[in-house]
Design brief:
Blueprint lengths: L12 E2 L11 H8 L15 E4 L4 H17 L5 E6 L8 E3 L4 E4 L2 E4 L2 H10 L4 E2 L2 H6 L7 H7 L4 E6 L5 H16 L3 E6 L4 E2 L12 H19 L6 H8 L5 H13 L6 E7 H5 L7 E8 L1
Parallel strand pairs: 1-5, 2-9, 3-8, 3-9, 4-7
Antiparallel strand pairs: 2-12, 4-8, 5-6, 10-12, 11-12
Helix pairs in contact: 3-6, 6-9, 7-8
């Protein structure tokens, strides 16, 4: 039985929780991120999805903005399915069933019909815990960009736990959208390697050697993503700790495979070290933007 009814009184309203995630002048900042950026002419004419990072904009905003801009120029969706990382230790994949997601650049209505259909299709592996979305930042960071590039779009936010059921969610989404006749884009949110003592991962020391290790570790995950290795991402992330949103990546790659997509395209890669240009590398996080 679906959990949504017309008599439902309480609706989720996701208020902006910016803190230090993004600036108050979001639109101007996105415009600045896109200066001197032109998407490659070698990309496919039609794109269906993207991988974007979710750190504060001062670190990864440029990568996210350029990746989503590229996707927006090659898509015309009715719905955006947002696949978030699980930083809070959920036991189930958790979707947002209805309501409104507010951003500094406008409100995004929840695609409640698709949410209800997905929950009905996968009730044993999905929950609709609204409070989980108040605590998780991985979709909050990119929500103003979604409103900027697709101001009239409805969204379906789902926090994806890193387990094998992530594949099932991807396949179910493809089937439900096909039956509905609506078009969608899919955006997976993840950062890559977290390196340094603060993250409990400093085995390569500091300096150039450590930075090289981080970049090599990130490259392994980026290759998994770009080669659409949906069944290998969880193992890669577990072994090398190079994606905090491995569940979201798995779902997105399952969707890409269902669309017979064989390749993802790297738009940009950087690290927080590359952003701030410290004199000596001690810690940093990797960020990549990929489109399908």
């Amino acid at each position: 039985m679906a959990f949504l009814t017309k008599k439902r009184v309480m609706q989720f309203i996701r208020e902006p929780q910016a803190m230090d995630l993004y600036p108050s002048d979001c639109g101007q900042q996105i415009f600045a991120f896109l200066k001197k950026y032109t998407p490659s002419t070698e990309l496919p004419e039609k794109l269906i999805g993207a991988v974007v990072p979710h750190a504060a904009w001062k670190y990864s905003g440029k990568v996210a903005a350029r990746t989503l801009h590229t996707l927006s120029e090659r898509s015309s969706p009715d719905i955006c399915v947002l696949l978030g990382a699980d930083h809070i230790g959920l036991k189930k994949h958790t979707l947002l069933p209805d309501g409104t997601w507010k951003t500094p650049l406008g409100s995004l209505p929840i695609a409640s019909e698709l949410a209800s259909a997905l929950y009905s299709a996968l009730p044993k592996i999905l929950s609709n815990d609204m409070s989980a979305h108040e605590l998780e930042h991985s979709l909050e960071v990119i929500s103003p960009m979604i409103a900027y590039f697709w101001p009239k779009l409805s969204i379906l936010p789902i926090i994806i736990v890193p387990n094998a059921n992530a594949l099932e969610i991807g396949n179910a989404l493809v089937q439900l959208l096909k039956a509905s006749g609506k078009t969608a884009i899919f955006v997976a949110s993840t950062d890559l390697t977290h390196y340094g003592r603060f993250y409990g991962n400093a085995h390569a020391g500091t300096g150039e050697k450590a930075l090289d290790w981080v970049q090599h570790n990130d490259k392994k995950m980026i290759e998994c993503i770009c080669n659409v290795k949906a069944t290998e991402i969880l193992k890669e992330a577990a072994e090398n700790q190079n994606a905090c949103g491995a569940g979201a990546l798995t779902t997105l790659c399952a969707i890409a495979k269902a669309h017979e997509i064989q390749k993802g395209y790297l738009i940009e890669y950087t690290t927080s070290h590359g952003n701030e240009h410290p004199n000596f590398f001690q810690s940093g996080v990797g960020y990549a933007g990929v489109v399908f």
